[in-house]
Specification:
Order of helices and strands of chain B: HEHEHHEHEHHHHEHEHHEHHEH
Shape of chain A: globular
Shape of chain B: globular
Strand order of the largest sheet of chain B: 2-1-3-4
CATH architecture of one domain in chain B: 3-Layer(aba) Sandwich
Bound molecules: iron/sulfur cluster
Distance between the termini of chain A: 36 Å
CATH class of one domain in chain B: Alpha Beta
Helix content of chain B: 40-55%
Strand order of the largest sheet of chain A: 4-3-5-7
Oligomer: heterodimer
Strand content of chain A: 5-15%
CATH topology of one domain in chain B: Rossmann fold
Chain lengths: 461, 401
């Protein structure tokens, strides 16, 4: 039997064409017509894997086609690789960053900031015509290079496999290091022995332990951010002013505000207005970095709020959401569960702490922008002590009315794994909600066994 | 030939837990410290008794620790967490509170987990990763002051500058004497082995510092009497090995035992449980910040990233120590999930290869199941070094002929 492919139905075309354009950083615009054409003609040819009906990868035979935002985020995802290539051709600077951090200083310095997942997405999109298995095989092969040059216990390799092989034109590796990730600083360091000497390396040193209350720690981190911007400027050849940084903060605050409002709107609904995957891609827009184009994310985000408000008002239920699903809140870095299969098992994902933590952290707009950024970053709820992080998480769990909590960590993620048990311990103690710790295999296709464990938990709920 | 003082050290170690117990009954407090940049002199000068919590080699405790800190945490930290969970270790039992640093993220996480599950009072010292920056030094100076403030609170007394000067002088003497002793183990016709010196270094993590200095001085006097002029020679007929990589704490002697059993001779190390922390510690100013900065200015720990390979102080120090000890090969020990060292294994191997020094990475944990596999690899490595040095020797003879 051949692979079954999903296709957008012409029935929804007319409604979709009424939606807004997407405006990009460089001022260019893409119309709904162009998006529709891409999603129905060009996209399926280039990236059949993305249209492949494969429940293991969360690809259903039908999608929420009446939610224009869902189509637009799909479009932005599919065009990601091409857009990054074009940005490079135009001389745009690109930085490798860490997940879980905001990108205000990079935006200020006119640099596209890509977290590990996006770097992989860029690489993945460079080859056309792959189905899911082929794309995964290619990803794994490339990771082997990093494992070989570093450690097979590595989770995060700092983009080493792509940059050092010359596959991706990344100019600077400059993540906030240590913030939540055990591996990233070693990944950055590894580049020093790779063949590519022209890639700049920079560690934005995120100090640890109750640092948000220490003026000297805030000042040190602010100094890291100043030096970061200096390094980014060395690549672009421009001079970023404090005013640029303040403007970037204002822009990102707008995204964070909208993202937070959107999530709260979603939570306020009696019936989930979207399914898990759509919720995740909507809320992810709040940090504005998810599609490698801040303005594009912002324009889709603004429109999304309108659609969700309408659905909430009219009591519309998201696509493929069952009645009274068990509401799951996910904890842990760089991870998630298979939304559609979990939905089929009777659940829905109503929130995550990762990404959400910094989306909810607004930066003060008056005064020294570096100091303000540093202060807020050191206050990220996700990065606080076990108790503080757990208490913030409990608040989110309550707001989202979750029935169960899954703490997931990747196989090689020591930092998150180490605190999984105490955090779920507190949550269980203080909310009585069932919790479950789940370990994900590193970077592979999602396995039946993994889903079985999740399903067993859902069943127990 | 045996050094009599070493016997004394062993005996004093056995008596030490009881002694700590009595000291606590007399109102003294014991501080268990865990980490790589904890400025011990400050703890000592405040009248606390510092003991380093560094235990290894017990797979059962690793299992216990995994229940609290996950099975993905490094073996060393898992065992420490397990040891706190069981509370059977005679030194851990005697600790009043703990001092950790954030050099290694996993170490830091252990502090959080131990604090949470075992309700231990923990003081944590932040450590900058961009350690060579002036701003990082300023940050660390503040952290040292804050660390001191937290200790003062627990001591219910301020830190006295003259007491700190005394502690610094004492620790300086210890370091100086250790360095002198260390030369003897690498010498030709050595009267003390590296293993004995290694145990001696680790004894200092637990014994009273004043007494420890005196024991070191007695050891040195004995050594000087037995071997007036220790000379380190490269071609002494042994496979001269150097150990690098993840720490090897008390209780873990698996790899060291294997090396010995296959005829390898260890002549040096740059382990954080060995001589390295005692080297290049130059305290320029008697103040908490002065002491802490001297710690940070040593050879950096592998958990602190450094982005320029050519000027990396860790690799420079490794080369320097290899040349001093005239080692012919490096056994690079990496513990399961010890990212700071495993990430650098291949790189270190490649760097050393340029100087013609072979490196064997041994990736292991505390279980005994890999013993035979490790032994086979170490044996082959030792053999390879022997053959290599025989060939070099023959070539030398031919060249001379
Ligand atoms: S899963 Fe953990 S180790 Fe891996 S990239 Fe994310 S934070 Fe880092
Ligand atoms: S350096 Fe290695 S052994 Fe030491 S605490 Fe860190 S991960 Fe564990």
């Amino acid at each position: 039997m051949g692979t079954q492919l999903f296709r957008y139905s012409e029935d929804n075309k007319e409604k979709f064409l009424e939606s807004d354009n997407i405006t990009f950083n460089d001022g260019s615009v893409v119309t709904p017509e162009e998006i529709w054409h891409y999603l129905t003609v060009e996209g399926p040819e280039k990236y059949p894997g993305s249209f492949e009906v494969n429940l293991y990868q969360g690809n259903r035979a039908s999608r929420d086609e009446t939610l224009p935002t869902s189509l637009k985020t799909h479009y932005l995802g599919l065009t990601f690789s091409d857009r990054m290539e074009k940005a490079k051709d135009r001389g745009k600077s690109i930085a490798f960053i860490q997940g879980g951090q905001a990108v205000d200083p990079y935006t200020a310095a006119d640099t596209i900031a890509l977290r590990p997942g996006l770097v992989n997405q860029w690489y993945g999109g460079l080859e056309h015509g792959n189905d899911i298995n082929k794309a995964n095989l290619r990803r794994r092969k490339s990771k082997e290079k990093a494992f070989h040059d570093m450690s097979f216990e590595a989770c995060q390799t700092g983009g080493y496999e792509h940059v050092q092989e010359g596959d991706l034109r990344i100019d600077v590796i400059a993540p906030y290091t240590v913030l939540r990730c055990s591996d990233v600083s070693y990944g950055v360091e590894a580049h020093r022995h790779g063949p590519k000497k022209d890639v700049k390396l920079f560690n934005v040193d995120y100090p640890l332990r109750y640092q948000a209350d220490k003026p000297w720690a805030i000042e040190y981190f602010a100094q890291n951010l100043r030096r970061l911007v200096g390094t980014l400027d060395e690549v672009t050849g421009r001079v970023t002013t404090e005013e640029d940084v303040t403007k970037a903060i204002q822009l990102h605050n707008e995204g964070r505000r909208l993202g937070t409002e959107l999530a709260e709107l979603w939570w306020s609904a009696d019936v989930p207005p979207t399914n898990s995957a759509d919720r995740a891609s909507l809320v992810a827009l709040g940090n504005l970095e998810v599609h490698g184009d801040v303005q594009a994310s912002l324009s889709v985000l603004k429109e999304a709020k309108k659609f969700i408000a309408e659905r909430v008002r009219n009591g519309v239920k998201g696509h493929a959401v069952i009645d009274n699903p068990k509401r799951i809140f996910i904890l842990g870095s760089c991870v998630g569960i298979n939304g559609s299969r979990s939905e089929d098992a009777g659940a829905i994902v109503v929130g995550r702490d990762d990404q959400w933590s910094h989306c909810t952290s607004l930066v003060e707009e008056e005064g020294d922008p570096y100091y303000n950024l540093a202060k807020t970053t050191l206050e990220y709820p996700y990065e606080q002590s076990i108790e503080k992080r757990a208490h913030w998480t409990i608040e989110q769990i309550r707001k989202s009315r979750a029935d169960g909590v899954i703490f997931i960590h990747n196989w090689g993620c020591n930092t998150q794994a180490a605190v999984a048990r105490p955090i779920v311990d507190i949550i269980k103690r203080e909310t009585g909600i069932p919790t479950y710790i789940h370990e994900l295999e590193l970077g592979g296709l999602q396995h039946e066994q993994e889903q079985n464990r999740v399903n067993a938990f859902i069943e127990m709920l | 030939m045996s050094i009599k003082t070493l016997e004394k050290v062993r005996k004093r170690l056995e008596e030490r837990p009881e002694e700590l117990k009595r000291a606590r009954e007399d109102g003294r407090k014991v501080v268990g410290w865990v980490g790589y940049n904890v400025p011990e002199e400050i703890i000592h000068a405040l009248g606390f008794i510092p003991v380093r919590i560094a235990v290894g080699g017990d797979d059962r405790l690793v299992e216990v620790g995994a229940r609290y800190a996950s099975s993905k945490t490094c073996v060393f930290i898992r065992e420490i967490v397990g040891a706190f969970a069981e509370n059977q270790d005679p030194f851990i039992q005697q600790t009043d509170f703990l001092a950790f640093d954030a050099t290694c993220l996993q170490n830091y996480r252990a502090a959080e987990v131990i604090e949470y599950f075992f309700k231990k009072d923990v003081v944590v010292l932040g450590v900058p990763r961009n350690f060579d920056w002036d701003e990082a030094k300023q940050y660390f100076a503040h952290e040292a002051n804050e660390f001191t403030r937290l200790l003062e609170e627990r001591a219910e007394a301020p830190l006295d500058a003259s007491r700190l000067a005394e502690s610094v002088a004492l620790y300086n003497d210890i370091r100086k004497t250790l360095k002198s002793i260390y030369v003897f183990q690498a010498a030709k016709d050595n009267v003390i082995s590296w293993e004995e010196v290694y145990d001696l270094i680790q004894a200092g993590e637990l014994l009273d510092k004043q007494e420890y200095l005196s024991l070191l001085q007695q050891t040195l006097a004995e050594l000087q009497e037995l071997q007036q002029n220790p000379v380190i020679e490269g071609d002494d007929g042994n496979s001269r090995l150097f150990i690098s990589g993840s720490l090897i704490p008390r209780g873990d002697r698996k790899l060291i035992g294997i090396i010995k059993s296959v005829g390898g001779r260890i002549v040096g190390d740059d382990l954080w449980s060995g001589i390295l922390p005692h080297l290049d510690l130059d305290i320029k100013e008697i103040s908490p910040a002065g002491v802490a900065l001297a710690y940070l200015n040593r050879t950096p720990h592998a958990a602190l990233p450094y982005l320029d390979l050519a000027s990396d102080k860790r690799l420079k120090k490794l080369h320097e120590l290899l040349s001093e000890s005239k080692a012919q090969g490096v056994i690079y020990h990496t513990l399961r999930y010890c990212d700071p060292f495993t990430f650098k294994a291949k790189e270190t191997k490649n760097v050393l290869a340029k100087s013609g020094i072979p490196l064997l990475e041994i990736h292991t944990e505390y279980a005994g199941s890999d013993y035979e596999a490790m032994k086979t690899r170490v044996e082959a490595f030792v053999e390879m070094i022997k053959i290599k040095s025989e060939i070099t020797e023959e070539e030398g003879v031919l060249a001379d002929a």
